[in-house]
Amino acid sequence: MKKLLLGDFAVARGAWEAGVSVAAAYPGTPSTEITEELARYDDVYSEWSPNEKVALEVGIGASIRGVRAIVSMKHVGLNVACDPLFTASYTGVNGGLVIAVADDPSVFSSQNEQDTRLTAVSAQVPVLEPSDSMEAKEFAKLAFELSERYDTPIILRLTTRVAHSQSLVELGERVVPAAKPYERNIAKYVMMPANARVKHTVVEERMQKMSQDANALPINRIEEGSKDLGIICSGGVYEYVKEALPEASVLKLGMVYPLPYDLIKKFAGSVKRCIVAEELAPHIETLVKAQGIAVEGKNIFPRCGEFSANLIRRCVLGQQSAAEPANVPARPPVLCAGCPHRGVFYVLSKLKLNVLGDIGCYTLGAVPPLGSMDAVVCMGASIGMTIGFDKADPEAHKHSVAVIGDSTFIHSGITGLIDAVYNKAKITVIILDNRTTGMTGHQNHPATGKTIKNEPTYELDLAEVCRAVGVPNVRTVDPADLAATEAAVREEVAKDEVSVIIAKRPCALLTKRLYSGFKVNENCKKCKACLKLGCPAIVNGENGVTIDVSLCTECGLCKSVCKFGAIEPIGGGKE
């Protein structure tokens, strides 16, 4: 049976067919759908972990105990998981351990554009890279086999285009291998210095053997074509190469680390011109050149952004395609109509405060007209950066706040808050609690009271967590109440100690109401104060301001900021 599947869904299917028992992840586009799909299988334990480090530790534990486990994350999530990753390379596995990591070339939904293959080289962890959904499924299955055969975690690297594109997949049956017996082995699993020194040698020997064996691995293959041009490629780039250069010889690499150097040397010697086509870093090119093999690469290709068939044709042949898309007007993302974060950012903008922000849909508070975000670095950094502001300038707390989402606070904000209390920082933290992990598609987290399978569980009380770590001032406000929100911010930033404001209101997209919307009446003075909210439902047209009722969620912010009573509801909402 064949089925059209997203690359992420195909990875999940492959893991299921391979008999995976445990799946753990923290949501991160473009990897989120892997674990969401696995949660649909009742015979797989799946969880949303508080962060990627914990998720990988869960996977490592399951592996040591003897079952197959998959841990999924995006590229920046791998940064969070690096601590256990680097040591798991030394300990090896018992049951197969696969880490699915989705990179984001062209930075569609991330704060940076990094290459997981470079992290894998540093950690000495092998990497497989599929080109389409069918390969995503098969490579996931192969990854478990290789993990157990070579006693190592395996990274399955995807990119946005492969993760979120669909192609036909041949479905198979689930085969669950017998759980491997757990045997206490201190020399293998306890990484104290004496054991680690021995295991480092084992890791180096393992990578050399895998490199040699990779020469005969079927996922690394030569596709014969013209001897005038040879292309070495992998992943989604392979599909672009086949479209742009159909006559060229191609060496398709399914394992991108360690590399099959004998196969590469044979291929490079069989063509007049050999080029490595790879997105982002010159990973393959650098390793191949280090072996004395002459290839081209980043001398003709860009180091940044996604590739395309047109780009490859242009870089290799100097040809401009007639089908090259014309420039289209930019459509920057904005906070949704009715987003509960809008009221907070409106207040912060009005008060002209410095805002140290964080990772989430609320990062869009940086977009005009709100323009209320001074810095964003990584998950949880808002609190640490605000502490830095305070320590650099004792008066900073009077004009600076940290803003962090509820899921992000749990992910990596709690430790920053502990630091603030412990080191007597005078900062105000605003937790934007919209009751979900909104940016990646509304996943549950520990403060929603539901698991990944929507089963009821303990609901973490964020206010009590803040009090438990020693925050003396904790208050909750409804961000739709602009007056109360502004009063809370003014009062808390004036204090000479740590304070937390929890702006609590569910994401507008979680409601199931039918809205009639708001309208602008004859009292409008065309002052355009409502436009400062940046709400996509408010339109400034030739005849003045109007409200698009198809977008309006009746949050009431526009009514609150209008001093002339020019905005009123059309009618009551219906359940």
UniProtKB/TrEMBL annotation:
It comes from the Bacteria. Its cofactor is [4Fe-4S] cluster. Pfam families: Fer4, POR_N, TPP_enzyme_C. Keywords: 4Fe-4S, Electron transport, Iron, Iron-sulfur, Metal-binding, Oxidoreductase, Transport. One of its GO terms (molecular function) is thiamine pyrophosphate binding. Binds 2 [4Fe-4S] clusters. In this family the first cluster has a non-standard and varying [4Fe-4S] binding motif CX(2)CX(2)CX(4-5)CP. Its EC number is 1.2.7.8. [4Fe-4S] cluster 2 binds at residues 535, 552, 555, 558. Gene3D superfamilies: 3.30.70.20, 3.40.50.970. [4Fe-4S] cluster 1 binds at residues 524, 527, 530, 562. It catalyses: indole-3-pyruvate + 2 oxidized [2Fe-2S]-[ferredoxin] + CoA = (indol-3-yl)acetyl-CoA + 2 reduced [2Fe-2S]-[ferredoxin] + CO2 + H(+). Catalyzes the ferredoxin-dependent oxidative decarboxylation of arylpyruvates. This is Indolepyruvate oxidoreductase subunit IorA. The gene is iorA.
